[in-house]
Structure formats: C-alpha cells, structure tokens
Amino acid sequence: MAEHVDVLVVGAGISGIDAAYHLTTSRPDTSFVVLESQADFGGTWRTHTYPGIRSDSDLHTFGYGFKPWTGKPIATAQEILDYLGEVIDEHDLAEHIRYRHRIDSAVWSSDDGRWTVAGVDTATDAPFEYTCRFLWMCQGYYRHAKGYQPTWPGMDDFGGTIVHPMDWSDDLDWRGKRVVVIGSGATAATLIPAMAGDVEHITMLQRSPTYFRAGRNANELADLLREVDTPEEWVHEIVRRRMIFDSATFTKLCFADPTSAREQLLAGVREQLKPEYQDLVDTAFSPSYLPWRERIAFVPDGDLFQAINEGTASVVTDQIERFDETGILLESGEHLDADLIVTATGFDLNVLGDIAFTIDDEPLDFHDTVTYHGTMFTGIPNMAWVFGYFRASWTLRADLIAQFVIRLLDHMDEIGASVVVPRLRDDEHDMTLAPWIDPENFNPGYIRRGLHLLPRQGDHAPWLHGQDYWDDKDVLPSWDLDDGTLVYR
Ligand SMILES: Cc1cc2nc3c(=O)[nH]c(=O)nc-3n(C[C@H](O)[C@H](O)[C@H](O)COP(=O)(O)OP(=O)(O)OC[C@H]3O[C@@H](n4cnc5c(N)ncnc54)[C@H](O)[C@@H]3O)c2cc1C
C-alpha cells in the first residue's frame, strides 16, 4: 500500500532542504516527505569528494536567507554540509527525509488528482511507492552517478590512471605524480591549487580559456560589521544584499559594456600573476567569448594563480590529438607526460532526475512544454521544478521558488482547488517559442548538449525563464495567480 503525502520533494540537496524548511515553517499541517537516492543529504556537496572541493560563489547568497552564514564567503563542501545539517536539526527535518530512495517513475492520474511515485531502495532493491498531491522537483540539473566523459583516441593505451572528478575515491594515488587536468572550469580551478603542493607537477590542459575572478576569501563589510558587534542575522542580511547588488551590477556591465567587463576580469588575472607569467594573460586567460556567457568561477585568495607563480602548476592551451602510453599528444606536437589524467570535463545534464514521467498514460516529453516563470510547465499538473541561477547563487532562486510554491498551495486551499496546471491562453498558442536558455546569453557545454531535453519559453511573462534575480524577486512574489494562465480544479 502506497504511503500518501500532500507534497513529495525529490532530492535532499540544498534546494530540497530549502523546500522542506518552507513547508515546515509555513505550512505545518501539510504532510510531506523528501526522497533522496543517496545515503545522506547535501546533493552536490556529498557527491563531489575531490581535493579542495568548495563553492565558487559566496555563502552569504548561496546560503539561505533564513540562516546566517558565519564563515568565510567561499566554503568547503564539508562546511556546506555542516550548515545544511544544522538546518535539518534546527527544524526537525530529518523525520521527513527518506534516504536511498531512488525515484524511477512519476505517474499523474487526472481521475485521482494525484501523482504515484515509484522507485527502489538503493540498498536493498526493494520497490517503494508513494502517492502525493504535489510534486516539488529539487533534483538538481546533472546526473550524480557519473560525469560527462568525452572519449579521445588512444585512451586505452594510456599506462597511468584516468579519473573523472565525480569518481574520485580516497584511495586514489596522486601524491608525487605528474598530473594533467583536462578542462579549465571551476572544478579544474579548485583541484589544481589543492593538489599542486603535493604532486611532481600539475598541468591544466584547456581547449580554450575561461574567465576567472580572483580575490581574498574574506568579506570586508562582514568583518567591519562584526567588529562593531553587529548581530549575525544583520551581518548576513546586509552582506547578502551587498553581494546581490554587486553581482547584479557586474552582470549588467557584462551586457552593457562587455569590453570593459572583460578588461576588469583580465586586469584581475594580470594582478595575480608574477612578471614572468604575464604572457599567460593573453595566451591562457583571455577567452574568445564575452564575459558571463559561461559561469565565472571565483578563485579565493588567487590560489590557482599562486600555484602557477610557484611553478608547481602550468597551463597549456591546445587540442588533444590522442592519448598514448605515457600521456597526451597534442595537436601542436607537444607531449604532456602524465601518471594521472583528470578529466574535469563537466556534467551530464539530466533534467528530471532520470524519472520517467507519465501524464494520464502519455509519456511526458519535457521539451514539448512551455515554462511558467521557469518553475511550472504547460500540461504538467501540480508540479514545480527548481532550476537555480547561473550568474547568481543557485539558492536565491530555489528560495524564491519555495516562497512561490507555498503561496500557490495557500491559494489553492483558499479557493478549494486540488489541481493546478499552467495552460497557454487561446491567443498564445502561436506565440514564438525560444530555447530554455538563449545560447547567445548563456552557453556552457552541458546546456548546449541538453537543450533538446529542456522545456521552452515564450516571448512574454509568465512564459519566460529569465535567469534574472532582480526581475524575479519582484515578479514571482506578486504575480497574479488568477491571471488565467493557471487552470484550477
Ligand atoms: C562542484 C560544484 C560546485 C558548485 N558550486 C556552486 C556555487 O558555488 N554556487 C552556486 O550557485 N552553484 C554551484 N553549483 C551548482 C550546484 O549544483 C547548485 O548550486 C546546488 O548545489 C544544487 O542544489 P540542488 O539541491 O538543486 O541539486 P543537487 O545538489 O544536485 O541535489 C539534488 C539531489 O537530488 C537527488 N536526486 C536526483 N535525482 C533523484 C531521483 N530520481 N530520486 C531521488 N533523488 C534524486 C540527488 O541524489 C541529489 O542529492 C556547483 C555545482 C558543482 C557540481
């Protein structure tokens, strides 16, 4: 017999815990469970265990609005897990979370007005089934079980070890080795300084350069406020507002005046590198794309650049011709000798947690739907999806969506509705549709590879997915829930 709950939250990462917090505090009479396929909470911060694993955005905004962050702005995975653990304890959320529960299917029945969610216990393979009124999808955006691993000719010939950062294990033997890290995203920028002191040499091999921002892992405003004994709640709120404001200002500059934004970023790198490495600014750290079209990683205390200055790390910009017994042969003819090759090549986008969705016997193709504010979808009843920000902290959007879902559930109670589904109005069926994210606006590889799986957006609200916190923070909390685009019954 399936257990029934009002709301079923998928995933116990930072978004799922946020959902659970909002349900407990704002709707104490709503029954809910959080189903999580891993053995513990934390999602991203539990899955990734490679050396140095840390956030690349500040925890004043990546943390929750309701719980002050008291540590350094950039945090380690363990610090984030500790913070999430405190939220679970402080709000008695543990009793709602079921671990090792991997959901495989979600079936909506209009006759019953509910979802049936089924899966297996990953420890025992025992099947489980829940029914729920509302499904709150907090399953993240990438496959946790394995990363994106391209193949290159000759990989089988390599005599050393090849590892993807998502498969890192504690017994991996890397100290004292010659290491090549393929990729130059946030993962590479984290791994390299963390390993540089303990390897013979580490090389970042990139096909093309990435933008980085470097700075102290400290917040002067927070330090100043603490010096005058300001309560931590105030420090959090003030610093959070400042960080949001600064990040919005910089994002605006990237679009209004990309040349000066680029100059600012490159000047930051120039400042970090010793005179003998200055040529790297042009050869290794000057991307061909405009700033913010891909995520910009923050490099705390410039540690990546310090590793280069010390000569323990280097950067090579080239294409891979093939792997061979002793390393990687590049198209330029150069050979990189290696004992260990780390493929920091990114993620495999998975939009709905690899869950097979069916709506009244019809398999759901998510790409056929149009989004309502980037969180609900035409034709999908009683479901909200959390997809955070790229250019601001993910959690800012998770939090706005949480408040929206609570408002929607309250509204449904008020009008006596048990089902809500977004539907295009009669005159909107010919609306021009656009991809989930405009490739001209934001274009990292995993989104490019997955656009055909993602829903689409229209050309006016509420059918937009704007990725703009400044817009969303005003629009989402005040949007009229009876404007005719949400159909209730
Ligand atoms: C290394 C790394 C660093 C990052 N740093 C930042 C940062 O500094 N700032 C930022 O804003 N963003 C960052 N991101 C993006 C990051 O993923 C999000 O910000 C955030 O952690 C996502 O939280 P989430 O809870 O939405 O999803 P996740 O952390 O992905 O958690 C989703 C959870 O759902 C579970 N799940 C998925 N499918 C199922 C299923 N079928 N059944 C049951 N459970 C399921 C997963 O096991 C997982 O625990 C980073 C990402 C990575 C990989």
Overview of this structure, please?
The protein has 489 residues and is α/β, with parallel strands linked by helices. It has two domains: 3-144 and 348-488, 3-Layer(bba) Sandwich (FAD/NAD(P)-binding domain), CATH 3.50.50; 155-217 and 260-343, FAD/NAD(P)-binding domain, CATH 3.50.50. Helix content is 29%, strand content 21%. The protein has 13 helices and 23 strands. The strands form six sheets. Strands 1, 2, 3, 4, 5, 6, 17, 18 and 21 form a nine-stranded mixed sheet that branches. A five-stranded parallel sheet has the order 7-16-8-9-12. The protein starts with a strand and ends with a strand. The mean pLDDT is 96. Bound molecules: flavin-adenine dinucleotide.
Q: Total domains, how many?
A: 2
What does the average pLDDT come to? 96
CATH architecture of the largest domain: 3-Layer(bba) Sandwich
Rg for CA atoms:
23 Å
Ligands in the structure? flavin-adenine dinucleotide
Largest pleated sheet: 9 strands, mixed
Helix content: 25-40%
Q: Judging from the principal axes of the Cα atoms, what is the shape?
A: globular
Q: What is the CATH topology assignment of the largest domain?
A: FAD/NAD(P)-binding domain
Count of discrete alpha- or pi-helical segments spanning 4 or more residues: 13
Structural class: alpha/beta
Q: CATH H level of the largest domain: which superfamily?
A: FAD/NAD(P)-binding domain
How many angstroms does the end-to-end distance come to? 27 Å
| Portion in beta strands | 15-25%
Low-confidence stretches: none
Instruction: Please count the beta strands (DSSP E, at least 2 residues each).
Output: 23
